[in-house]
UniProtKB/TrEMBL annotation:
EC number, as in UniProt: 5.3.1.30
Lineage top rank: taxon: Bacteria
Similarity comment: family membership: Belongs to the isomerase IolB family.
One family name in Pfam for this protein: KduI
Protein name: 5-deoxy-glucuronate isomerase
Annotated PANTHER family: 5-DEOXY-GLUCURONATE ISOMERASE
Organism (species): Saccharibacillus alkalitolerans
InterPro entries to which the protein is assigned, alphabetical: Deoxy-glucuronate_isom_IolB, IolB_Bacilli, KduI/IolB_isomerase, RmlC-like_jellyroll, RmlC_Cupin_sf
Amino acid sequence: MASHLQRKPLNERRGEVRIVQEVLKRDSRLKYVEFRLIELEPGAAYEETLEGDECCIVALTGRITVAEGEHVFENIGTRESVFERKPTDSVFVSGGKSIAVTGVTKARAALCYSPSLEPLPTKLIRADEVGTEQRGKYQNRRTVHNILPDSDPTASSLLVVEVYTEGGNFSSYPPHKHDRDNLPQESFLEETYYHEIDPGQGFLFQRVYTDDRSLDETMAVEHGDVVIVPAGYHPVGVPDGYTSYYLNVMAGPKRIWKFHNDPDHEWILNRP
């Protein structure tokens, strides 16, 4: 039986689109973050009015056109697989606006939501504007694509990043958390992880746990799963021979990513 923090793909058809994943506030422990992954055939369209949430539409694979009012961003997207390991295009849209996402080719788009705290301009985030960085050392190495980091004022509450972790490495490690509104030491941010694995028959492990162990779950995560992190530490371990990709969506009362390492494991950072 899957954990209440782990969601298997839905693959549910709604009109012209297929809903691959969906995490909503009403059916999860989350108050700030929602996530939806849609699959589009050429010419198929997904439409939505955002109301109280802002949204980052990530052209995960294939090519899409995103329209919001007078803004039309045509034929965006850069890759056929996330494992091409290059950044992709995204579109940010503030709350109160209506969006239409149309498939140019067969495509998947990730819709990342959080509360819209102020009206902001609709913006195309081009792939060549996405910062790439390497984090970690030893068996704690990963590559990060910063689509909407906290240093970028495009959004009012939303944070979005992509992470690649090679087999035999841990990610989100040493275990860290961001579940207390205690700045400047730590910020409160909920989080979702959308996972893909190459080759696709692989699996990885993700643990979500709090200091008092009132939350302590370890999940065998497969290709296409989503893991929900309402609180606690949340490391990811990738077996040898497989590569992990995940898309993170984060949001909370303040748009600041300030994490706290598990003190039992922070010593790992100080190895020579």
